[in-house]
Amino acid sequence: LGHEIFGYKTQSSRKALCIAGYILSCGALLLLFYWKPEWDVWANCIRCSLEEADIVLLRTTDEFRVYSRKTVTWISVSALIRSRSDYPATAGEDSIFSKAIMKPSLQVKSIQVQKIRYVWNICAKHFQKVGALEDHHTCSAIHAKFGSGLTCNEQYVRRVICGPNTIDVPVIPVWKLLVKEVLNPFYVFQLFSVCLWFAEDYMEYATAIIIMSLLSIFLTVYDLRQVRHLTFFHKEGLFLISGKGFQELESHHLVPGDMLVLKEGKTLLPCDAILISGQCVVNESMLTGESTPVTKTHLPQADNIKPWRMHCAEDYKKHVLFCGTEVIQTKADDRGVVKAVVLRTGFNTAKGDLVRSILYPKPMNFKLYRDALRFLMCLIAFAAIGMIYTVCVFALNGEEAGEVVKKALDVITIAVPPALPAALTTGIIYTQRRLKKKGIFCISPQRINMCGQLNLICFDKTGTLTEDGLDLWGLLPSERNCFQDIHSFPADHSLPWGPVFRAMAVCHSLIVWEGKIQGDPLDMKMFEATNWNEGQGSTHAIVVRPGPKASCAPVEGVTILRQFPFSSALQRMSVIAQEIGGEKQVFTKGAPEMVAMLCRAETVPSNFESKLLLYTAQGFRVIGLAYKSLQAGKQSTDLTREEVESDLTFLGLLIMENRLKKETKPVLEELSAARIRSVMVTGDNIQTAVTVARNAGMISPMSRMILVEANKIPGSFSASITWKPLEENKPEDYRSLLALGSGQYHFAMSGKSYQTVAQHFRHLLPKLLLNGTVFARMSPGQKSSLALKVAHAGISLSEQEASVASPFTSRTPSIACVPELIKEGRAALVTSFCMFKYMALYSTIQYLGVLLLYWQLNSFGNYQFLFQDLAITTVIGVTMSFTGACPKLVPYRPPSQLISPPLLLSVVLNILFSLSMQIFGFVVVQEQPWYSKTNIHSACLSANNHMENSSSISSLGLHGMRDEAHGQTDNGYKSYENTTVWLLSTINCLIVALVFSKGKPFRQPIYTNYVFLLVLIGQLSICLILVFADIDDLYSKMDVSIVPRWVFFLLQIFLLVLCLQEAVIENRALWLLLKKTFRYHSKSHYKRLQRVLEQDSAWPPLNETFFSDSVAISVEGNMGGHSNPTFDSNEDVF
């Protein structure tokens, strides 16, 4: 999250006034300042420059604009450097450490934001992040400045300023957590309610609320302990070079700029580090979820003025060892040891970023939560009206002031249900359990509701839509610039010995790990086809030799001297290899079009492009192979990648078959039927991607593909963009197909074109994304900017139980989890709406009933409240959410906001019906001939005194006749009005729960929720027992008198009206007709754009080329650690 920063200085006079305010308000002002830190700062401090500030106020730059208060602290380094009169600048004058130390006090001014420390840069006049090596260093500068380590003095200074290299999440003590939870506005309201209920002897429900709150706190503690378990770090002894030679040091003492020597064997990395010599193989599954080992190469000693990251571009990660990953193999070069410079420590590391994304999740802009807060404000306003009414009624009738205050405050706890937030989360908790049973794990439960609104899914291709493994289908060798006969796999005869065979045997990044050959699936299949084996040579170099099943080869083996790992930016990999006793050769494999560009033109067949199109159009993955011989006497370590990968000889095309997973097509068809768009984002060839998209059902047979090509014009700052149909041998007239609508065409573009469009044709990007379906040859950075950083939810397909790299992890590695997640998300969202409507109506029904009784200075009894609050509402709140998701995805989404006409109309009409029914009952009971305001047994006495009129009395439906001789004490609540209104409101709550518990189309029918139905039947039975049982002790306890039977007739009418009302309000066809009649259109940006493009006959401009202006927009992505969909750490400076 970006932040704005403001400087403030504490003023003594203001602080004294605030302290007086705290005392006079009995702490209420302090509580308000706790909730609103900006008010605290504005009240206690005066605005000043950041340089003078002792308090800073941070404000997020997103739409939430959340404030946080930070105290400026001072770090003293005088004890470390005062012994030297002339202290040398740490690692050069351009270091932040030399720019942050104030002279002569030798202190550093700092603040800490979300576990990251920032220090004041005296020269630049801003706060700058420490704990990471500065970005401006060039490749040669890193080797020169940090290649021999830091001096002891530099280490000590950096250690004090940066802090320890740990990712520690301390468990908050229970008492602190309790205080923090209690100070939450919701819990403060709960505490207020509980105190009021205890004052009114309403012990039972108050106790129940306390128990639920303690349970909530226990779950919070448990979650924090889980995070601590995730981030626990084992400290290891590592060798590092200092000015005085080798020294073993504990990992928490490491600082940016230290140099590590990586020993042989497995090592868990305690920090992010840049490899400056040797080579490593790393397991990065903790960060990426990918179990394939990754090869890391050392940073080149390039002598230029570009910062090292800009020089390496997107391949900078190939030189970085990330914290939390495991080095499983090291290979030293001619310099003898494998060395790395510490790049980032603590929470600045890639692992630290992931942990911070859990501790400080990115706030979600979800309409439901915003609307819930607004609705809550409306209920509070509603309660304020009730308070005024209560004060007027009770004061005018001469009640005591204390009683008036208690009754008025009681109205707030009735109108605003304290259990509302808990009720909204129950649906999410049950959904999380159902997802877990389906093998989908969630570390961000609040995103489940978000999944109910998804309407676009981006998929990777290999391993997601297609099988992880590739099958070797064939080899198309090339000799003397002509393609030869294809060699199919598996074949009866093996490949003949030659350059192609050698390329397949050595041009890979496979390693032997735990006795098995491991690495990229493509490399595995290619190497297996040779029937050779891999092992270690005497100098730690990898040696491949013929296996038992291999054909006869004229060499003992081939040694891989040096690897240039696969680069997504360069779209290729290369190795330098040498036959035992033979010459050195270079072998390259990669994207065919890229490999062909590196080859001598005379070695590339003239029909290269047509052959490539032939196989990619069938959905094959095609790899180009090339080689050249190196001149004798040249050291492989001295050669640059550019020198190695030039003037190559084209060897041929390797054709791999990547089959679709069996679940892919049915899932994509299901999503398409539900009008959920599917998009493919892949690093593969564009034609292969289009074919796979067609075969998978992502593109319908009647739709056409349009290739969007954008290129920068050489020697100019402008660019061109062209739309042209992909040739698919279809004779139909293209314009006639386009006339069918925007859904009949799809755009495909490469990563290079996407980057150019983003820079030069920014205004066209929304139009292209609206119908973009295939994005091919995309680099990881481009994938991140297109999908990962803007995604509302991410799913990792991993066999591990849970992954911190994504909010959701599916144990089953197939996309079958996607529709399941959407179904459950929709069900959870609808459940949240149902619960909100029910809780709002329940509190309003009770509120109206109490206000009616207040007119007679009466109210519900404690056990009447308890029955409604605990036995009815709490049990319904728990069981209503048991209803599961509907097994079928419908082609529309549930509403995303509470402030929508159907829902508002439903709530308002229900309130009016409830009010009408209660007023009707309240008035009609007073009109009965047996009614007496003072004698609650008047109806019974009337029946005893006038036996001759028994038939007429019976027709009135009187029940529950009791004699005064029982001597029951009256607590003042018992009256005919009380009984009538309470019974009407209680059964009203049951009816509302039944009607609001929606089933189809997003949830299963209500009758499948057996527990909920049994609860409703049980609650209704208890109500009927109260009416008909005539149990004196029970009646006395519940403050119930006789009940007229016409109440049930009234309730039947209400149930019928409510069902009819819901049937009309929830009628989707009716609302669509109203929208069409009144010409209402969605205001969302993409819907508006879609309507505009449908009416634009000139879009898309087929076979036309546009040129941009000479101004380009920079779209440099975040150069930090691994891309993280939930957290974007892009804040180096305040």
UniProtKB/TrEMBL annotation:
Entry's transmembrane regions: 16-35, 205-224, 372-396, 408-430, 839-857, 863-882, 903-925, 979-997, 1009-1029, 1049-1074
InterPro entries, per database record: ATPase_P-typ_cation-transptr_N, ATPase_P-typ_cyto_dom_N, ATPase_P-typ_P_site, ATPase_P-typ_TM_dom_sf, ATPase_P-typ_transduc_dom_A_sf, ATPase_P-type_domA, HAD-like_sf, HAD_sf
Membrane topology, as annotated: Multi-pass membrane protein
Superkingdom assignment: Eukaryota
Keywords: ATP-binding, Magnesium, Membrane, Metal-binding, Nucleotide-binding, Translocase, Transmembrane, Transmembrane helix
Main localization of the protein described in the UniProt heading: membrane
Compartments reported by the entry: Membrane
Residues in Cation-transporting P-type ATPase N-terminal domain copies: 129-202
Substrates-to-products reaction catalysed: ATP + H2O = ADP + phosphate + H(+)
The enzyme's E.C. designation: 7.2.2.-
One GO cellular component term: endoplasmic reticulum membrane
PANTHER family the record matches: CATION-TRANSPORTING ATPASE 13A4-RELATED, CATION-TRANSPORTING ATPASE-RELATED
Record's protein name: Cation-transporting ATPase
Organism: Falco tinnunculus
